[in-house]
Every structure is written in structure tokens, then in C-alpha cells.
Amino acid sequence: MYLIGLTGGIASGKSTVARRLFEHGAVHIDADQLARKVVEPGTPALAAIVEAFGSGVLRADGSLDRTKLGTIVFADHEQLARLNAIVHPAVRELSGRLIAKAEADDPDAVVVYDVPLLVEAQVDHPFDLIVVTDAPRRAQVARLVEERGLDPAHAEARVDAQADREARTAIADVVIDTGGTLAHTMSQADALWARVRAEQRAKGSARPG
């Protein structure tokens, strides 16, 4: 198995790169989806959130009201740290199981673990390669405004709340520049796939027997 950690700031083109690698045949695991799954009704993580933040963060049907919880934690670093201490370990455990399953299903699988908070959450899976999608701040803000309908001030706050670009690119083995055209981003993703497959072939031919 070949494990890629894919990260990058909000609206930095992660989904585009992940989709392209998936089209090439990679197994895609999305940390955002896992973060929703681990707080579904009946999960230990949701019970811990209610204990920490009160039943006011639940909807009438017992599911988590993300908007309400967001208003509590978004502007309060201490409360956000409390939430992360509940959610991140649960996501780590689930992602570990999914990665192990992908390897069991296909020992030669290329697994792309798409983790927006790879730096912040200190994700420690044994990655073969860490790939960072990188776009200029103004491009991230513009995408949030144009594609997600945020007002400019809110968009800037969302971008600035994340780890800075230097912290992310410092851990990168590969940086994909998504500030240009879609075709330019795609060609870099294609080159990455070719590199991974070449490395796998080299490893395979180096195996004894």
C-alpha cells in the first residue's frame, strides 16, 4: 500500500486533486466525512460533546447542530481545543481502520487520506508522501465568496483561522500549486500519480523473490 496525506488550506483545491487521483484509481478517504460520521447519534464522541457543551448543541432529532456548536467554538480557542480533543482521536481511530481495510483489500492500493487539518490535528499515520495544495490567500478568499457564497469578511476570517501556508508547506513532500488554471492543477495531479506508480514499481522490483 502507498499512503498519501493530502492537505491544504480551505478552498485551496484539495477536492479537485483528490478527485483526480480517485479517477486514476486511488482509494479516497475524506477526514471531513469521517468527522461527521464519528459524531452521529449514538456515538461516544457525540455523548462527550453533549457532556462538554450541553444538550443545546443537539437538534430535536438528537443529531449534532453544527451551526450552534460552531458559534461556541469558532471564536474561542479554548472551547475549540476541547472539541478537537474529542473529535480528532475518534477520527484517527476510524481512519486507521479504513486505511487498514484498504490495504487488506488490495496490498498495492494507493490511498489518499484527505485531511484539511493534518498540521493542526497532528495526524500521525505513516504517510509515504505528504502533498499540500497551495493557493494564494486572495484566491482562497475569492473561491469562498464566489463558490460558497460567504461574505468577504467571513471568508477572510475562515482562511486566517487555519494554519499558515508556511507551516503547511514545511511538512510537504510535494506542493501542488492551485493558483493557476484547472488544467495546470490537473497536470500536476497527473504527474504525482505517475510518480507514485513509478515508486511502487521500483519497490516491487526491489522485493526479494
Automatic annotation (TrEMBL):
Name the InterPro entries for this protein. Answer: Depp_CoAkinase, P-loop_NTPase
CDD domains membership: DPCK (cd02022)
Q: Name one Pfam family in it.
A: CoaE
Q: Which reaction does it catalyse?
A: 3'-dephospho-CoA + ATP = ADP + CoA + H(+)
Q: Where is the signal peptide?
A: none
Keywords from the named record: ATP-binding, Coenzyme A biosynthesis, Cytoplasm, Kinase, Nucleotide-binding, Transferase
The compartments listed are: Cytoplasm
In which broad location class does this protein mainly occur, judging by the first location in its UniProt entry?
cytoplasm
Enzyme class, first EC level, given as a word: transferase
Q: Which domain of life is it from?
A: Bacteria
Its Enzyme Commission number? Answer: 2.7.1.24
Where is ATP bound in this sequence?
Answer: A11, S12, G13, K14, S15, T16
- Stated family: Belongs to the CoaE family.
Q: What does this protein do?
A: Catalyzes the phosphorylation of the 3'-hydroxyl group of dephosphocoenzyme A to form coenzyme A.
What is this protein's record name? Answer: Dephospho-CoA kinase
Q: Which organism is it from?
A: Agromyces larvae
